[in-house]
Structure of HD domain-containing protein:
Amino acid sequence: MTLIKQLQAQDEFMGFYLLKELEVKQTNSTPAKDYFDIVLCDASGQLSAKFWDVSPTDKETFFPMGLVKVQGLVQTYREKLQVKINRIRKVTPEDGVAVKDFIRSAPLSPDNLIQTIHRVMDSITNDTIKRLVAFCVEKVEEKLQHYPAAKTHHHAYFAGLAYHIVRMLEIGEFICKQRPFLNEDLIKAGIILHDIAKPEEMIAQLGIVSDYSVQGKLLGHISMAANWITEAAIHHGIELQSDLVLGLQHIILSHHNLPEWGSPVLPQIPEAVALHYIDSMDAKLQMVEDALELTPETEPWTPMIRGLENKAIYRLNL
Amino acid sequence: MTLIKQLQAQDEFMGFYLLKELEVKQTNSTPAKDYFDIVLCDASGQLSAKFWDVSPTDKETFFPMGLVKVQGLVQTYREKLQVKINRIRKVTPEDGVAVKDFIRSAPLSPDNLIQTIHRVMDSITNDTIKRLVAFCVEKVEEKLQHYPAAKTHHHAYFAGLAYHIVRMLEIGEFICKQRPFLNEDLIKAGIILHDIAKPEEMIAQLGIVSDYSVQGKLLGHISMAANWITEAAIHHGIELQSDLVLGLQHIILSHHNLPEWGSPVLPQIPEAVALHYIDSMDAKLQMVEDALELTPETEPWTPMIRGLENKAIYRLNL
Amino acid sequence: MTLIKQLQAQDEFMGFYLLKELEVKQTNSTPAKDYFDIVLCDASGQLSAKFWDVSPTDKETFFPMGLVKVQGLVQTYREKLQVKINRIRKVTPEDGVAVKDFIRSAPLSPDNLIQTIHRVMDSITNDTIKRLVAFCVEKVEEKLQHYPAAKTHHHAYFAGLAYHIVRMLEIGEFICKQRPFLNEDLIKAGIILHDIAKPEEMIAQLGIVSDYSVQGKLLGHISMAANWITEAAIHHGIELQSDLVLGLQHIILSHHNLPEWGSPVLPQIPEAVALHYIDSMDAKLQMVEDALELTPETEPWTPMIRGLENKAIYRLNL
Amino acid sequence: MTLIKQLQAQDEFMGFYLLKELEVKQTNSTPAKDYFDIVLCDASGQLSAKFWDVSPTDKETFFPMGLVKVQGLVQTYREKLQVKINRIRKVTPEDGVAVKDFIRSAPLSPDNLIQTIHRVMDSITNDTIKRLVAFCVEKVEEKLQHYPAAKTHHHAYFAGLAYHIVRMLEIGEFICKQRPFLNEDLIKAGIILHDIAKPEEMIAQLGIVSDYSVQGKLLGHISMAANWITEAAIHHGIELQSDLVLGLQHIILSHHNLPEWGSPVLPQIPEAVALHYIDSMDAKLQMVEDALELTPETEPWTPMIRGLENKAIYRLNL
Amino acid sequence: MTLIKQLQAQDEFMGFYLLKELEVKQTNSTPAKDYFDIVLCDASGQLSAKFWDVSPTDKETFFPMGLVKVQGLVQTYREKLQVKINRIRKVTPEDGVAVKDFIRSAPLSPDNLIQTIHRVMDSITNDTIKRLVAFCVEKVEEKLQHYPAAKTHHHAYFAGLAYHIVRMLEIGEFICKQRPFLNEDLIKAGIILHDIAKPEEMIAQLGIVSDYSVQGKLLGHISMAANWITEAAIHHGIELQSDLVLGLQHIILSHHNLPEWGSPVLPQIPEAVALHYIDSMDAKLQMVEDALELTPETEPWTPMIRGLENKAIYRLNL
Amino acid sequence: MTLIKQLQAQDEFMGFYLLKELEVKQTNSTPAKDYFDIVLCDASGQLSAKFWDVSPTDKETFFPMGLVKVQGLVQTYREKLQVKINRIRKVTPEDGVAVKDFIRSAPLSPDNLIQTIHRVMDSITNDTIKRLVAFCVEKVEEKLQHYPAAKTHHHAYFAGLAYHIVRMLEIGEFICKQRPFLNEDLIKAGIILHDIAKPEEMIAQLGIVSDYSVQGKLLGHISMAANWITEAAIHHGIELQSDLVLGLQHIILSHHNLPEWGSPVLPQIPEAVALHYIDSMDAKLQMVEDALELTPETEPWTPMIRGLENKAIYRLNL
């Protein structure tokens, strides 16, 4: 079976793919005929495809996010590859394929990631901090298993958010060793909590964000997470105006650093400054790493990366 | 007794004033001598003053925010008026003067303002909204009697915040009549709540802000008020994710309109759009009105007003 | 007859509509065939449509801004509704329909609006101001009956400009009562004059702006209106450098507030500050109200609104 | 007699100077004594000075912009030179000195400059343009003899505005030869008119701006000049909406190029684009030339120049 | 033979053109058919064209940048002209046409331009400067014959860069005469060197830039040229830290003036200030001149010009 | 002996200090008397001081950067501490104190830091990179022993630059382990070279920058370092256009990330992206750490930190 990343112009191929998007359109011939405008994907990438001569049954058979077996031909359209589908059918249990094999995922398993997050949470020495963190994590425990960290910006894949957290925890552990004046409990808590409301801010399935929730649009994940701390503190009977509660809320509120990047306050405690740079470093380097991975090795330049000021990344020949 | 606004160069005068600021300084003569660098004020304005030849007793007698009787001479220094104090003593009960007569205040009495706010609160038809608003107002009930609305920007005087709210309520009432598609309950609630956390964000006495609180710096009044809604909803058992709670939090979070003005989200419900413009209109016009009032009528231009892009206001001769 | 706003996918329908846009295009079949790419509208909204198999006669029969009777089918194209026209013919006098019934209009009649504007003009107590205002209004008297206030931004419909003025006059009346230090004559004059040159800045028909005039591009409506004041003052023999003339010109020049929004000077008299906020409040709230009205009530979100920083407006469920 | 530019620390000197600024201040000794805080200047530069022990007669004798004979000593204060005045008296007719010899002036005489401007005006071939230009020039004919081009930015000296115009005319003549598609009449007119309202925007004496006029603040010289064109056209019976009138107004309105630099419209005719760059080039290079001239040749760096983004200019050693 | 600029809707025509762009596309009929999506150009302009029914031989015959003879029909598509090609063949030697006649070129011949540049180089009096300039020019001597000055911004045609340099040298000569304090050698050198690395920054053929080089993207032409000066100085044994080397590097580095326009340092010597304005004036006026030339004289407005803040240029009717 | 950080109002004290700044000023008494306006410092901080009644001998005895023994009294002036010096004398050899004990220094010894840098340089596996790095380091080998990393921004103390490099190398080592796709040689080289030209950009003594060099102002350390790579490559006969040379120059040029922060190009290779964030993280956290260290532990807030958007840092009470 051919991976999408390997398909080239003029290839005839057959294989299993995920119908990531499917739209029924009409040709402008008279009478107009229906066709499918499709995006096929697997874990290696995605490709647009057309299926002409759609029957009424087809329209009731194929839907987005379903697995299909496709036999097709790779053509070129507007300098891009595009598949002309000759035959297509739904996957049956006998095919023995699973949706999760066809989507991009974090390099580590969700279980592994969640375990790491819990291990770090358990290592927080201040009990009050630990309980506040636990309360918030519990709210999204299930979604943390599969949510991406963003719609397109970075870590936009299955379990991307948990992966982002785990990688940041690694940086956090290092930086606390390098600069012992930082409070390690706050760094750990800040990393786990900074994007904790994202699973409620965005609506995602299989690591793909389709939209923002009403709450996400009206409040934003930063204010949502600050609210959760309030909720957690009330739940556990912790003084709302204690420096500890203020500190955690401050770290969350300020982690985008500048107002124009979405933070209502600038970082004003050491751990908030640290968190912002740990977050940036991990997000930006992941964008670079992912872009390189999705670009065929024969290409010297990746596509432009929006999160890097629309610059492409170059592979040096050393 | 002469009002500060009326004093002119070369005037000899005597009267009661408030010691708004007092600093002990040393002359650079040898040996250095102590003197007081003072700001005297009454409700009509303020003036800097010097009291040379300070005795050790004086240093233990006079402090900022105390009332004094002063006999002095008005001089000119760097093109500004300045008082040379000849005699100064503390006010005694027999003098029959009260601090509140010497500070700038809202044109309406605190009681009157608070009553109006309560009356409007009572007129909110949606009970849940009413209870959420009441919970937040109760938190600052006492401070609302005297807090200013800002450090220097606008309504920076005794009961300035309550006055700002009451005037906005008048605009709100008008605009709801003009545009019935607006939800009047939300407009009322938004106006009362939008700056409700300011008394906890700032540290003020007699209508004068001396600093921001730790909480004010780390969270800001916008996020603080959003938290209070969470607290209020939990207290009253209201669903945290109901549109009503989200809506109120959204109105508060978005009322500065743009991120660079401090709002983490832009207005996305009609009442949030309305609130931003009601707030701006009242704040800006009050700045203009106050600047004109504090400027002698013989001056065609007020001083520059920071909140109006550092422009001065001109009195047209029509 | 079905309103455009009510049409749904798969509907077959017949009715009268306005051909808001019409372009002859060619299919890419060989030989290429002509078809019409059309925008149909009525007062409730607009919809794109295709008419395939266009005959040479058709091309000489149908033109933009003509009324037609259409029989068609609603299809879906790229997730949007689109009409496939089966039959189309021009309207005849017998059909008894008029263009004005098919376009969006201010909720009040032009006559009503113009009368209100004249009534307010007459109420200006300062005769010089009254004459200056009258001179400028007279220049665009006829166009004020139907011009929109902007190309797309706000009040972009038949008599939108007059409606914007009238609603601002209501706010102006309120604010002058609330803050008597404002000069009511200047507020009235400023409101009537601030956009008075727009009918010469833009080229519009039936409330729809097709382009800006040469004068509009080279000078802009703000400088044009300032020029008109000069003209009016010369006409009436009023001193060009009187505070009254300067004041009116200043209000006009500064009403966009910031240079980057098009004002060469910042507001520096109280009425100029007031006018800017009266204008903003009315324009922004009208954008919100119009967007909600054009959005089917089943949709919780309006489309994005350019004048509100590209945000959509949400209907809360209270 | 020693030029101010030549004075050095510890010099004792005597000479005639202009009292550019004079303020009566009080020492903080008790009793306080009056002294003069003075700025002395001549055409080579300026220096601050103190005159201690001022008598009541002195206060009625010395005023800003008067000529004086001074005997003094050069001291250092805060790393800057400062004169301690030992003796000072007013100039008498017998001294045979004139104010104009003590101020900075354009390198060419006002007569010479005005003649050039008139000669160029006469060379305009289009009679209508010529008459419009003449009308505006006539308004400020007298002030053009001595007004500076700006408060501090550039050409801030006696006849600086006329000098700026004349030098721009030289560039204009060159550029019209180099690029014959430019309309030379418009270039000439644009150069003469672009800052023509500055003498009414600013209040100046002897080439020194003390303030902006009310008109200057409320309208700005750009809109004022646009108004003058309207006035001129009405005066000469020229069609206000002719391309010629629009074109001239457009050139004036757009010559600051960007809104944030004060232009309500961007350049949209070739001559407007040209004018902006002719103006910038002359202003910026004059700032550089003047800064170098006022800096002692032994100094490698000039002071920072506000109009050049606060950069200093370096003298290369080639 | 008809020039492209002269073609009008419905014209049938035959002539020689350059295939500026050619892409093979497929129709969405079933089975899909190949067609050519083409851009035809000659020196007067360019036009898109379609050639339906492409044969396999055609696909091996026609390539971008080849000359062809075309017989076709001018149609309208989306309000723009578009050619329907009926017959097309490659040019043969017998046709006697050359590619260079079909592309836009500077108005002066490359030889002429290069000679002027060399003549000015020879006139540099400081030998060290002359040698540094010569070293850099030699690097791109050949490419200077035909490279454009930019991808689309300005002087985007055959020998556009050399033409830009020559025209700037004319301005430079004038300004040095007008302001003798400028060092003419530095002005000449700065003009010749400021964009000297552009031929290595961009990849161009026949005056058309297809992409930026790796070096161009990673360093940019400004830093590249600064490096070349280092190289030249080492080559000629000139002290790298001499003011002369620093000065030349500074002029190059600062010639975009502001950091956001690409200059790492602001101009800090007189010649660097001058160079920036000489460069801007020439580039902007050339944009205007070229836009007018490419716009049919019947059109009052040119298309929008990106380098002029997206404004169009208007032809006044004087 | 009392550390400056420990001095409090009213303290009488005696001790050794460094005269960091000294200016001779005059009182405004008549006759004016000289006094010293002084900044005293030791490694714990600095304090301003006055020495009245300066004798002519004193003026020839005391100079900035000299060590002195002082007996004085701590007073309060404008809410800040200030020393009144009663007696002062120069340090003699017998006092046994050394300048270096009185200045702020990196926490590690210069030798230690330089050794680490050399060790990492030696560990670079690519010989060409190693030789390019060595060439540049050699240029500033001596100054690297003591130069600060900036004038005031961060690491502004003795050996601050070397310390910054060493700490970044620690982060670099970690991040290369965490993300093996990064080229460790480039990361090491980039860290060592990114600020390598700072010792030639700034003029510093004892870790205190007094000014920028001419070269520093005209080129900036970023372009200077890029030039050094060119020089190094020529010296070692390495191809100037090899990806390796381009890559190193690119990392240096882009390390400030955005043009407005001084980088002419944006990061476009993975190591350039990484370097920017390693640099930011180290600089910002050091600012925080230093500010906390210089602030008495009793103070909850540090002074405002310019490099952190003028925010102060708060010590949470957990």
Summary: The radius of gyration of chain E is 23 Å. Strands of chain E lie at 12-26, 34-42, 45-51, 67-77, 80-90, 202-205, 208-212. Chains E and B do not touch (no CB pair under 8 Å). Chain E has two domains: 4-102, 110-291.
